[in-house]
Amino acid sequence: MVTDMSTSSHTPVLLEETVQALAVQPGGRYIDCTVGGGGHAAAILDRSSPGGQLLGIDADPEAIKVAKTRLEAHIGSSLLVNENFLNLQASCIRYDFFPVHGILFDLGLSSLQLGSPARGFSFQHEGPLDMRLSPAQELTAAEIVNTYSENELARLIGTYGEEGYSRQIARRIVQKRPLRTTLELARVVEQATGGRRGKIHPATRTFQALRIAVNQELEHLEAALEQATSLLGFQGRLVVISYHSLEDRIVKRFMLKEARDCICPPETPSCVCGHTASMRLLTRKVIRPSPAEVEFNPRSRSARLRAAERLLSRDKLDETIEKLCFSAAVSSTVWKRPALLKEVRRAFSAV
Q1: Which of 55, 51, 53 is nearest to 26 (CA)?
Q2: Is 1 within the bounds of a domain?
Q3: Long-range pairs of 68-72 with CB within 8 A, sequence gap ≥ 24
Q4: Based on the domain organization, do 210 and 232 belong to the same domain?
Q5: Is the CA virtual torsion 85, 88, 94, 97 positive or negative?
Q6: How many CA atoms lie within 13 A of 7 on its CB side?
Q7: 185 with 203: CB under 8 angstroms?
Q8: pLDDT bucket at 276, cuts 50 / 70 / 90
Q9: How do residues 165-191 score in pLDDT, each as one tens digit?
């Protein structure tokens, strides 16, 4: 999402490309799973007028406050929920918001988070080693840095940060701890790497690794993508903007899998998985920002957009309805009412 999150200068990444990939239409229903400052959400609501509706979700309560201000003109057609997209399906069921025409994930950090020293996301400002997207979470970066073993730290920084100096960094952290602030950690990383300089700051990958671990970002993304498929109506669009290779790899692998009928290993003589394609790829190659956008908004330079379209065969309709309406993961009983099946069948009747 890497954008300026003030209500006046919020600059959403790949805005026109996102709206086109979602095929936004008047009267459509859309979900923004990382609503942030509301830039994408506002554009979606503008294009889906009249009659468009949007459910905006964000784990960061501060982002919800900013988005509410940004979307004041759409107060009657938008609903903003402070929730992690790990609970995407449950949120949609709770608010009677499915099936939908499009779902957007704009991953990454915003300037609201990076620009707030108290959040501990940035190595450019003095702040506590926090890095939680939601204050309700318990694990902090400080706990990881100061309690994990050297081997655990090296594995975490190497895996989530794709950092070649992970072993040296982990060793230096253990030698210098306790570490309490972002600048302390950044200096330790610089010392461990010899102060090497390139296109990115030496501490970038270490901070990325800690943030991913604190917020379980990759695990939550995988789970949310699975939920998103079942929430899309026929020809509904799934659009994901990622900012580093770990995220993009998960999105690419998921979309490729869901675009295939059989996912058995190549050596399997005949299909035994029973898997059928649920998506059609819309982007064989990632869509990246134009040079003009990167010049205007340098933080967009690493953005990668992928999109897919929902396929829904008649023989899968009842199975989809069953999963949505009677999921064991949803404890609420209010949805188990006779009118629901009729309502959802009508919504899926375009198959």
Answers
A1: 51
A2: no
A3: 68/38, 69/7, 69/38, 70/7, 70/10, 70/37, 70/38, 70/39, 70/41, 70/42, 71/38, 71/41, 71/42, 71/45
A4: no
A5: positive
A6: 11
A7: yes
A8: confident
A9: 999 999 999 999 999 999 999 999 999
On whether both 229 and 184 belong to a single domain, the answer is no
- Going by DSSP bridges, is the β-strand pair 29-32/100-106 parallel, antiparallel, or unpaired? parallel
Q: Based on the structure, what is the number of domains in the chain?
A: 2
Average predicted confidence (pLDDT) for the chain:
87
Which H or E run contains 236?
Answer: strand 232-242
DSSP string, 25-69: -TT-EEEETT-TTSHHHHHHHHHTTTT-EEEEEES-HHHHHHHHH
Same structural domain for residues 225 and 79?
A: yes
* Residue 8 is assigned to a structural domain of this protein: no
* Backbone φ, ψ for residue 281 (5° rounding): -65, 135
Kindly state the tokens that stand for 89: 């399906």
3-state secondary structure of 309: strand
Looking up tokens 């570490």, which residue turns up?
A: 179
Identify the CA nearest to 214 among candidates 160, 149, 154: 160
Question: Is the separation of the CB atoms in 317 and 298 below 8 Å?
Answer: no
Q: Are 225 and 278 contained in the same domain?
A: yes
**Phi and psi torsions of 103, nearest 5°:** -135, 130
Nearest alpha carbon to residue 65 among 107, 37, 100, 34:
37
Contact present, 58 and 82 (Cβ < 8 Å)? yes
Segments forming the whole domain that contains residue 266:
15-111+217-347
Query: What residue has token string 């059989």?
Result: 262
